[in-house]
Design a protein that fits this description.
elongated; 2 domains
């Protein structure tokens, strides 16, 4: 990341609290110099509270002082000690009561459109059990007459990134083991 997380708020703070030129602030924040001039005049970013880039860990105090002494110098982002990485969830996934009734529809959609997914991957992706997946596949689920295959991402049961990762993993495993995908289950299309 080579720009601050909140560029306008950072620019507001730099205009109010430093002797940097508009060009230096604009270059660091990824804004146009006229936009920074508008911030200084109070025409742009009115009501935005300034964000201290030093306190946020985006800029070193020594770097700020160096650039205040030399108007031709450009600010450089501080190296992050810890990269921001999304936390992987461990354990079962909680699904709200209002969305649990949609799980069989999502399972049917996955079985139809991605037969390469194993039952275990479907269970992990949707937070369901192998028994439920098998019941939907065999059409022995208690709700099988009402099941309409629907995309689990659109239903909010999983994220697109999670779905793409599961599909890629299943395809890699299938190619590695030379296994043909399981036949898909036919369900009536949405009306």
């Amino acid at each position: 990341m080579d720009k601050p997380l909140m560029p306008k708020a950072t620019a507001v703070w730099l205009v109010e609290n430093t002797a940097l030129t508009f060009d230096q602030i604009a270059d660091y924040c990824g804004l146009h110099p006229l936009e920074v001039k508008g911030i200084a005049d109070g025409e742009v970013a009115a009501g935005i509270r300034g964000l201290d880039p030093v306190a946020a860990g985006e800029l070193e105090r020594s770097e700020l002082e160096r650039c205040q002494r030399d108007s031709k110098a450009r600010l450089k982002m501080a190296k992050r000690a810890v990269d921001i990485v999304p936390v992987k969830r461990k354990g079962p996934r909680y699904t709200p009561l209002s969305k649990r009734q949609d799980r069989p529809d999502a399972i049917a959609w996955l079985l139809r459109n991605h037969p390469e997914l194993t039952d275990a991957l479907i269970c992990k992706l949707l937070g369901t059990t192998k028994t439920t997946v098998a019941a939907v596949r065999d059409r022995t689920h208690w709700k099988s007459s009402e099941i309409r295959p629907r995309d689990p991402v659109l239903l909010g049961l999983c994220g697109q990134v999670d779905l793409d990762e599961a599909i890629a993993k299943a395809q890699a495993d299938a190619a590695k083991h030379g296994v043909a995908p399981q036949p898909h289950v036919e369900y009536p299309m949405d009306s």
